[in-house]
Amino acid sequence: MSATEISAPFEQAKPMRRPWQRDLAGVLIIGVAAVAGYFLFPDNLALLTRIIAIMLLVLSLDLVTGYCGVATLGHAALFGAGAYAAGIAAVTFGITEPLSMVAIGAIAGAVAGLVSGVVILRGHGLAQLVLSIAVIHLFHEAANKASTYTGGSDGLSGIAPDPVFGLFAFDLWGRTAYVFGIGLLILVFVLLRILVRSPFGTLCRGIRQDPIRVSAMGASVKASLIKMYVISGAVAGVGGALNAVSTQVVGLDSLSFTNSAEALVMLVLGGAGSLYGALVGTIVFMWFEHVVSAANPFHWLTIVGALLIAVVLFAPKGLYGTAVTLMKRFIGSRQ
Amino acid sequence: MQVFFSIGVDALAYGMVLFIISIGLSVTMGLMRVVNLAHGAFAMIGGYIASYAARDLGLPYGFAIILAVIGTIIIAIPLERFLYRRIYGAPELTQVLMTIGITFCVIGLANYVFGPTLKTIPLPAELQGPVNLGFRTIAAHKLFAIGCGVVVALGLWFLIERTSFGVKLRASVDNTAMAASLGVRTRIVYAASFALAVGLAAFGGVIGAELLPVEPYYALRYMVTFLVVVSVGGAGSIPGALIACLLLGAIDTTGRYLVPEYGEFFFYLAVIAIVWVFPRGLLGRAK
After folding, report:
1. Is the pLDDT reported for residue B47 higher than 60?
2. Cα torsion A73, A78, A81, A87: sign
3. Which residues fall within 8 angstroms of residue B91, CB to CB, at 6 or more apart?
4. I need a surface site. Which of A55, A223, A309, B151 has the fewest CB within 10 A?
5. B100 to chain A: nearest residue by CA?
6. How far is Cα B44 from Cα B50, in angstroms, rounded to an integer?
7. CA distance B199 to B229
8. Does A261 touch chain B (CB under 8 A)?
9. What's the pLDDT tens digit per position in A22-35?
């Protein structure tokens, strides 16, 4: 397939080391950051675990928005589907083994991804946005109405996951949940690195740059996008399930429009079209939110708004993309 | 029958308020191709100005409306000049992010300046209380909203179909480069229609304050509704927007009356169904 010839903005700009070395470096960086987080903020492990769950959501959004160019404001539907599926499995059906809960979350997320992908990909531009907004509201109202299973607006509580592998019980300080989350994040990250470098991942980037050309080459644009949506749903579902396992509660806010919009903000802040950008954006945004909204909740929204405007005007590639560009310029000027 | 009638009146009033606010969005989106999520914020600013003028300063209602429209346009001019002009022709994602950013800022500032409470705009005595139509009585302010909607629709139709400005506007919508090369000052047309859109948003925000109460999260809460209206009607089409408003107003109001426990479920289901069948909107034109 000649789709591999299409150049990608981030990855192929310079002659690189072997790809698996870069991945190893990425995993190492995540690992070091995780250990540092564990020892630097032992009182904030719950927040860190929540950041990891949201990271999975933003990574999943990156797959469809950054790599495929689909603008969506309804991606939390996939995250919330995973969270509710894991929670309902534990509360109603008594499946409390954490890894099974995550697997159920991933499957539910994939199904939600299939449904919302089929709906959202029907439109383009404005229609696409409106469809995505309608999807997230539909999911929200449906979860609210099905209160027998979901607890409605009270939220779904009473999720009591078993110890991981039967050995490590979830403790009050959230240590197990944190390590569990880091493990999931590294696993997903490695799988996604392989995915985005695969011919399929490259094809998706080609679709973002020129869908007509890709279809002229004989690849099915819509089928590829829906496939990516399903994968993205599985990733978001893992994030949702992790959130359900670690907080032991699922609220309606996980299916909210705000959650979707914030995920998009985090992605763009970090830099769409790069997995590292998704991770960086989530950390910066969530940490910022934690600090600022504790100091003054009124101004949080104003600051997010100003931040967004600033990113669009001055750093359209996001923090990570801008840093990469600056670094390249620096290295280039030294040679 | 009584229920049917009150649903009809409420749906009509709600639809007309939606129309007044979102027609400006439809025009700018058809003309400048900007997905302006901050449109609801302008309606909200109009509501706040009118509330301040009528409630705190005690000015008459009509004067408050004029003040709200002019004040909102004055606030919007620097935004258009410094922010919107940079995103004309940019990808949708960029436009969405920029305008969501503006919306968040406006919400935060409104919350800070006016506080999180609901702001009422006191109605004049003539608009309070019911009006007897002989066989039924209707709340006067709903009748007023419906009347305003009809006037706005007719006025816009006249402006766009019968005046030279309308000719230039339609030419710019169809093909900006060609219109410019024929001597139409498209920049001025852009600016004028942006001001018109913002002014109409503010007007609708004031007229509809009884139905869509003014509070800081107004901009976010109804932003989606306005966007949906434009998408369903087709960007740039006045009759399309009118049909969409009446249709969606009817669906939403009927849902609220008959099955309130489902919230907006049916509204969004209808939106998906309509956009699915008409991806360019009911009366939208192929690009």
Report:
1. yes
2. negative
3. none
4. A223
5. A305
6. 10
7. 18
8. yes
9. 788 888 888 888 88
What's the domain range around A104?
A: 18-255
Q: Does A306 touch chain B (CB under 8 A)?
A: yes
Probe site for chain A from B37, B93, B251, B271 (most A CB atoms < 10 A): B93
* Run of H or E including B137: strand B137-139
pLDDT reported for residue B33: 80
**A168, β-bridge pairs:** A164
Token readout for B18 is 């939606």
A139 in a structural domain: yes
- β-bridge partners, A164: A168
How many angstroms away from the CA of A11 is the closest CA of chain B?
22
Q: Are A3 and A267 in contact (CB under 8 A)?
A: no
Chains A, B: CB contacts within 8 A come to 132
Q: Do B272 and A131 make contact, defined as CB atoms within 8 angstroms?
A: yes
Looking at the complex, report in whole angstroms how far the Cα of residue B17 sits from the nearest Cα belonging to chain A. Answer: 20
- Check if the beta carbon of residue B27 is closer than 8 Å to that of residue B33: no
Q: Which of A109, A125, A105 is nearest to A117 (CA)?
A: A109
| Helices (H) then strands (E): counts for chain A | 14, 0
Residue A50, domain member (yes or no): yes
Closest alpha carbon within chain A to B264: A141
Domain presence at residue A288: no
Distance of CA B170 to the CA centre of its chain: 20
The tally of domains found in chain A comes to 1
Would the pTM count as exceeding 0.80? yes
Beta-ladder partners of A307 = none
Q: Is the ipTM of this complex over 0.90?
A: no
What SS3 string covers A111-147?
HHHHHHHHHHCCCCCHHHHHHHHHHHHHHHHHHHHCH
Question: With contact defined as beta carbons under 8 Å apart, do B45 and B279 qualify?
Answer: no
What distance in Å separates the CA atoms of residue B250 and residue B267, rounded to the nearest whole number? 10
Q: How far apart are CA B154 and CA B10, in angstroms?
A: 21
Is B94 in Cβ contact with A138 (below 8 Å)?
A: no
Tell me the CA end-to-end span of chain B in Å, nearest whole number. 44
Q: CA-to-CA distance for A211 and B44, rounded, in angstroms? A: 39
Which of B174, B246, B273 lies closest to A123 in space, CA to CA? B273
> How far is the C-alpha of B210 from the C-alpha of B119, rounded, in Å?
10
**Chain-centre distance for alpha carbon A30:** 15
pLDDT digits (tens, 9 = 90+) for A103-159: 999 999 999 999 999 999 988 888 888 899 889 989 998 888 888 788 777 888 877
* A294 falls within a domain: no
Q: What angle do CA A248, A253, A255 make, to 5 degrees?
A: 100
A138/B279 Cβ within 8 A: no
